[in-house]
Write a structure and sequence with these properties.
The protein is α/β, with parallel strands linked by helices. It contains six helices and eleven strands. It has a seven-stranded mixed beta sheet with strand order 7-6-5-8-9-11-10.
Length: 241
């Protein structure tokens, strides 16, 4: 049996101290991996349904093959892993701000099997997703101005609950319009939110992209007598030319 608790790594970062830890949940007979920013929980391997749904729903909204996808935010890697399950995906670019998180994946410290690096379609780059979204160069340092079929974002807790001030302005119409410039016509933006759907944000997405909707993802928490929790995936499609 593994130790009941292990802090695998702890580092200072520009937005606060970040840590990767593992806890043994005896009632479930399993290890759970968690990422914390200070005392704030960012990600747990116990609850991955909505992160995976972000990728699954986003890819399902697209037609064709050789899809080029961006994932904003690496975390424990479940959104990226779900993207790679789709044979129609030709390339995946994962943008992560924190070097520590990239190192955890490179060193095999997170529980993904197989590792993202085992798939030749996947490339992880360190960068500020929000600054890249606002720039003309975009997300691929090797190909400035490159467009993508899907941009899937799992960084902030919700459009009005931010991790830090880097994303201030991103969720306004002007910020979303700049993001849309990095999508092919007909391309999809997907956004994870810890909250229930906000009709005002869905309406804002519709004004920018042309079509938008919010899909809820409900799962049960085994640590709270299987109490149901509901999170949201927003989907917006750029108008075809």
């Amino acid at each position: 049996m593994s130790a009941l608790f292990e802090e695998i790594d702890y580092r200072p970062t520009p937005i606060g101290p970040i840590s990767l830890r593992r806890r043994r949940i005896l009632s479930l007979d399993r290890d759970v991996y968690e990422i914390l920013l200070g005392d704030e929980h960012l990600m747990s391997s116990l609850f991955t349904e909505s992160e995976e749904a972000l990728a699954r729903i986003g890819i399902a909204d697209l037609a064709g093959d050789k899809l080029d996808v961006v994932v904003g935010g690496l975390g424990l890697g479940y959104t990226a892993q779900e993207v790679l399950r789709h044979d129609r995906v030709g390339s995946l670019l994962v943008v992560e701000f924190l070097e520590a998180v990239i190192d955890w994946h490179a060193d095999g410290l997170v529980p993904l099997t197989p590792a993202l690096s085992a798939d030749g379609r996947c490339r992880i780059v360190q960068g500020d997703f929000f600054a890249m979204a606002a720039s003309e160069a975009g997300f691929d340092p090797g190909t400035p101005g490159r467009r993508f079929h899907a941009i899937l974002i799992d960084i902030d807790h919700a459009p009005d609950m931010l991790l830090d001030d880097r994303s201030e302005g991103f969720y306004a119409e002007a910020g979303l319009t700049r993001l849309a410039n990095h999508l092919h016509p007909g391309g999809v933006m997907g956004l994870w939110s810890n909250d229930l759907p906000d009709q005002r944000f869905t309406d804002r997405l519709t004004r920018v992209f042309g079509r938008a909707r919010a899909e809820t993802v409900t799962f049960n928490n085994p640590l709270q007598d299987n109490k149901p929790f509901t999170q949201t995936v927003y989907l917006a499609r750029k108008e075809p030319e």
